[in-house]
Amino acid sequence: MGAFLKRKNIVFSARRYGIDAMGAMAQGLFCSLLIGTIVKTLGQQLNLPFLVDVGGFAAAMSGPAMAVAIGYALQAPPLVLFSLATVGYAANKLGSVTLSGGAGAGGPLAVLLIAIVAAECGKAVSKETKVDILVTPLVTILTGVALSALIAPAIGTAASSVGTFVEWATVLQPFWMGILVSVVVGMALTLPISSAAICAALGLTGLAGGAAVAGCCAQMVGFAVMSFRENRWGGLVSQGLGTSMLQMGNIVKNPKIWIPPILTSAITGPIATCLFHFQMNDPSGGVASGMGTCGMVGPIGVYAGWVNDVAIGVKDAITGMDYLGMGLICLVLPAVLTWLFGLLFRKQGWIGENDLKLD
């Protein structure tokens, strides 16, 4: 059996499923649902129906895009990879549960779990028969769709329940939950897992989504500014608009360099929830909550949520206070606070020369 699994490149590991597959799923979400929401919002603002249609088409393909991305991460052969489009559509559709705020939850999580199983089953039978072009797609699709029918609704219900609980708890205790959500999601963004996938799976929106944005921005902008001495402009852009995950190697060497952005997220989270009532109501259903300033997706998602809230009558208008809150929470406070904490840590000798240097 071990030889067979090795020959089929089937590796049961937390890294392959929890990091590689989940990270690829987030990219699939970005290339479909998230980019579709951005394009659709742009079309609505510019009164360009074509862009609205393009955004709608892109968003509708989120399930297939996620599943194919997962198959790619699992190094699935072509027939398995192409068959996963059907699996992703079924899992996402049957697993999506609409939350009270209109956001969907559960679909991405259902796609992640079901696409992994379907891909591995497809890989197991790939090129084992003389009618591979029939057997491999049949096994992949039948396995995926059957699992979607059996367990995707339950996954969606469970994920939506967790998401609803987090949102309810944040409304009930905005200060403490603001700290908790901001810190946890921010740390998930820097770790080699996908904070965007986690937020999308739970449909993390509302005040909880706003706290998640604050935490992610604290990590990205914070590391970018704190390490400017070592990495200059290239590091500022790669971390501030790319990902703070680039610092993971340095964190392993000296975990103390992670404390300043974590402290910052613990401050900006409750400021977002208690002072500015900062909410993420992006129609994409929470994926932007875990993106931070990566391509400025977090702030764009917040703006898209404002536009959507105004359109449906939940919000009267976008105010100057809204823009002030976004600027402080997403850019100014993460930069200033993390820089100050970093300066203090350098003086105490907790952060040494080149501890933040990127290779």
List keywords for this structure.
mainly alpha; 15 helices; two-stranded antiparallel sheet; 2 strands; 359 residues
The secondary-structure class comes to mainly alpha
Rg value: 21 Å
Order of helices and strands: HHHHHEEHHHHHHHHHH
Identify the overall geometry.
Answer: globular
Distance between the termini: 40 Å
Sheet with most strands: 2 strands, antiparallel
Unreliable segments of 5+ consecutive residues = 99-103
Strand order of the largest sheet: 1-2
* Total tally of structural domains: 2
The percentage of residues in β strands lies in under 5%
**Helical residue percent band:** over 70%
Q: On the 0-100 scale, what is the average pLDDT?
A: 90
Compact overview of the structure:
This protein has two domains: 2-163, no CATH class; 173-348, no CATH class.
